[in-house]
Design brief:
Blueprint lengths: L6 H8 L8 H14 L8 E2 L2 H8 L3 H13 L3 E4 L3 E4 L21 E3 L10 H10 L1 H5 L10 H13 L9 E4 L1 H13 L5 E4 L5 H9 L3 E4 L9 H10 L4 E4 L13 H13 L3 E5 L24 E5 H4 L7 E4 L2 H11 L8 H12 L3 H24 L13 E5 L5 H9 L3 E3 L16 E5 L4 H19 L19
Parallel strand pairs: 4-13, 6-7, 6-8, 8-9, 9-10
Antiparallel strand pairs: 1-3, 2-3, 5-11, 10-11, 12-14
Helix pairs in contact: 1-3, 2-4, 2-16, 3-4, 5-14, 7-14, 8-9, 8-13, 10-11, 15-17, 16-17
Length: about 475
């Protein structure tokens, strides 16, 4: 049976209409964005036109036109007696906000924050290849990880002031593999998970998929409102909490020492397990002083790290640093789905972590230059957009002059630029985030310049400017650096 989304739920996901143009077009564009970023899954049955019209407070004529437009674009299939079913056209670039196919060589995707491989990465692969004969003599089944990598990671934590044994390290398939494993192991159906109200959406999706009920903090100047956190924990039992305290995704904020002390105290007092995503901690572009690792405040914390952010998106190696008592339950749970991460890739990461830091430094230098270039292009082309300079991480979190994020994302797709609208990063459904966009700076200066030109064209489309864009879209093929 096809999954369904109720009219009320779909209305909540769509949020308040901006009425910046024809209502049917805005609703159709927002549904398309919900499908593209996965909030409405392929195969989902949408509510009837009449039900959706009632939930949105628009006419039946409007929703009829919405569904007709979605059917014309191939995104919706309607059949008498079966309703209207979402069908994602896999051959189209709109089928995934993360994929650009060879046919879409001119499309620029700014929907993911992962770096291209820095200079020196190839040397690590070559060095790892010399160790391949010894690796091939083993079975390659390593549910806890390659011993040499676990030893290297344990030593790095120890050097950072957190004494760690190799037995406390579990190597996973990227940070998402770690998050999914922790969600499945820690959270049962109906158990509450405290999360930042603005955060990495796929992590929250993992806890929801495990049956967790998310308690999202209000979004204010800091993602870590201590008073709101204390009140939430006092109101009901919570099983776990998921945090990104270092170069927070998407704001790039850093949790202060005082905030960490307060959070650790309250989490311990209410017996809530901290799941702490530190996969961006190594991307300290400006060398700012960071507080100690979260386990220095709460020894129960489960720390998540990743090579994909610090080195290369295609190096799918992550890890969990866990208290001793948590290791075996995690390994046993992992073996039900996955018997281990690529052993060769683990050798590569071990090489990268022991070569003196040159490759990581080269990657940070490249990102720093790309960040500064993107900031300069935005200041020149879109001075109405507020773009603070983040001290680390992989993206800018910009503020738009009006509630237009979804409309800009939709308009940008028509100019060959894929964006994730701001509301996707907000846990609570609705129109929150319509004044924000996340803009990764993980591509070349040439591509970033072109991307800002297309963003300016989309912005002009949305605000209805009669002035021509100073950076019109150029023709030709651009290579997407992912």
């Amino acid at each position: 049976m096809a999954p369904t989304v109720s009219a009320r739920r779909l209305a909540d996901l769509l949020g308040t209409l901006d009425q910046g143009g024809p209502a049917y077009r805005e609703i159709a564009d927002r549904i398309r964005l919900l499908v593209v970023d996965g909030r409405v899954a392929d195969g989902t049955r949408l509510p009837s036109e009449r039900e959706l019209a009632g939930a949105l407070g628009v006419s039946r004529t409007t929703t009829t036109r919405v569904y007709a437009e979605l059917r014309d674009s191939g995104l919706l299939h309607s059949r008498q007696g079966s309703g209207s079913i979402v069908r994602l056209p896999l051959g189209s670039s709109s089928a995934s906000s993360l994929i650009v196919t060879p046919d879409d060589a001119g499309t620029i995707a700014m929907t993911y924050a992962a770096p291209a491989g820095p200079p020196g990465l190839a040397r690590a692969f070559e060095s790892a290849a010399t160790q391949l004969p010894g690796l091939l003599a083993t079975t390659g089944y390593l549910p806890d990880g390659l011993p040499v990598l676990r030893e290297v990671l344990a030593q790095r934590y120890t050097d950072d002031g957190l004494p760690t044994d190799p037995e406390q390290i579990i190597v996973t398939s990227g940070a998402m593999g770690a998050i999914s494993l922790l969600a499945r192991t820690l959270v049962g159906p109906g158990q509450r998970v405290l999360v930042e109200g603005l955060s990495y959406p796929h992590a929250h999706d993992s806890f929801t998929a495990a049956g967790g009920r998310l308690t999202a903090l209000p979004v204010d100047r800091s993602p870590w409102d201590v008073e709101a956190m204390s009140a939430a924990l006092a109101s009901a039992p919570h099983r776990a909490s998921y945090l990104i305290p270092d170069f927070h995704n998407p704001t790039a904020g850093v949790m202060t020492d005082d905030e960490r002390v307060a959070w650790a105290h309250e989490l311990k007092r209410h017996d809530v397990v901290p799941v702490v995503d530190e996969s961006l901690r190594e991307l300290n572009l400006d060398g700012v002083d960071l507080p100690p690792l979260f386990s220095a405040y709460d020894a129960r914390a489960l720390l998540i790290g990743s090579s994909s952010k610090a080195f290369w998106g295609g190096l799918r190696v992550g890890w969990i640093r866990a208290p001793h008592a948590s290791v075996m339950p995690l390994v046993q749970a992992r073996m039900m789905d996955d018997l281990g991460t690529s052993a060769f890739d683990q050798l590569v990461v071990a090489e990268l972590l022991t070569e003196g830091g040159q490759t990581a430094a080269a990657g940070r230098a490249r990102l720093r230059a790309a960040r500064d270039h993107l900031l300069a292009e935005l200041a020149r082309e879109l001075p109405d957009v507020e773009a603070p300079c983040p001290p680390g991480g992989l993206s800018l979190w910009v503020t738009l002059p009006d509630r237009m994020s979804s409309r800009i994302a939709s308009a940008a797709s028509r100019h060959g630029l894929l964006l994730t609208p701001g509301p996707r990063f907000f846990t609570r459904a609705g129109s929150a985030g319509e004044r924000h966009l996340r803009l990764p700076y993980n591509q070349s200066h040439e591509v970033l310049t072109e991307a800002v030109g297309r963003l300016r064209a989309a912005y002009d489309d949305v605000v209805g400017s009669s002035e021509p864009s100073s950076a019109p879209r150029r023709s030709g093929t651009l290579e997407m650096i992912a």
